[in-house]
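Running log. JK asked me to keep both predictions on one page so they can be read side by side. First protein, sequence followed by its tokens:
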Amino acid sequence: MKTPKQLERYFKGLANHKRISILLEVEQNNNLTVDQLTGLLKGNFKTVSQHTKSLVNTGLLNKNYSGRNVCHSLSPYGRLALRSIKSFY
């Protein structure tokens, strides 16, 4: 059972439309780099990078190193969060 403080961390991680978009893209295309996400979202590299860092820190994304690239995948909590988000569709 998670404490309210732990739950707050996840909800704050989701409290941005760009972060939700990142989670949705990573769900569709696993192991995306920030460069790839920037292209898919037609965003700014620095902004997308900061949002992915936030999502990793909140435990919603995993960061995996592949040579010089850093790839992102959904964590189990990221999958759970997306399932919850999709229930609002």
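And the second, directly underneath as requested:
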Amino acid sequence: MVLAVTLTSVASAQSRAASTAGLNAVLARGWTALASGDMNTAAATAQAAMAEYPHSVAALALAVEVAIARGGAPGGLDAYERWLGNRRLDAAHVLRRIATVHLHEIARRREAGAAQVEALKFLVEDGDPEILARLAGGPASPLEVQLLASTGDERAVQALVQQLHTAPNKSATIDALAESRSPQAAAALVRLLSDTHDEIRASAAEALGEVGVPEAIAYLTPLLQDERFPVRLAAAKALYRLGDDSGLGLLESLLLSEHSAFRIAAAEALSVRPGGAWQAVARELTADPDEMVRLKAAELLAPYDRDLARQVVDGLRQSENPAVREEAGRVITERIAADFATLRHLLRDRDPLTGVRAAGRILELTR
């Protein structure tokens, strides 16, 4: 009896080894044909591999790559979803490949636009070797300088610091410095806290909160007495983010304001720490008449009440206001969608920016 079981086990192992060897041989032929540009052979080989080994993710990867070569990311997604069928589990690394190709296709477009900017940003954040190699050769545009700075590249940060002296619109440069999280950026932002323009002082204060340098607290605290309310609010938000409660009284008083814009601003500032009264305020504001207030409230609540947030955002995606629709697309991809089925659907969205953000979210979830 023991001998029979042993012989059966050996035979089973030999069968599996033969099957694996056969699959590897088929895949090798397919990849070789694809690399040489013989699309007909590559497609036929991929189809045969999928038919003989329907559960093989390796066979799927070949079939999707052939589909991408023929029809770009949409073709790859079509092939992937045909394989997926009624399966409940996605092949994450194959879906990641499709998302990466989608971002590259948008990034290579000749016309510059928000979708292209976002695609480049997601690829940089993902450490995409092709994009980083291109940037390493020397950024050719202000956008590329900002993207490189977001990776923490000190030369790019220094270039942005120098731009502060000449840029007609300092806001974009300040935002880019905030994303860099660089101490070098913090020093430049501190200098802007004494700018004569209150909007620059406010932007610099918020950016310092984003950079996260505790030494900035001493420079931010005096701004709680600034003559301009937006500057006081920005300082309070930044200080709270840095762990200093000097401006907490202002933020808590705004939670009780009769103006929903002030209440949601305070809730957003306080949301950097879990718990507290801000969640109740945000929940109430999901029914506010102002669509942007409802959207921000839903975004803040997404980590705590995904169902409510999705309900609010789904409704706002039908808004007559294009700006609201665009922001709703951002919120659902970046804050709410956490399953591949939803993200695959959003990859096909007719709004290019929503598709790009869905691809970026897929990269984030599969790192």
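Observation for JK regarding the second prediction: Residues 2-36 form the longest helix (35 residues).
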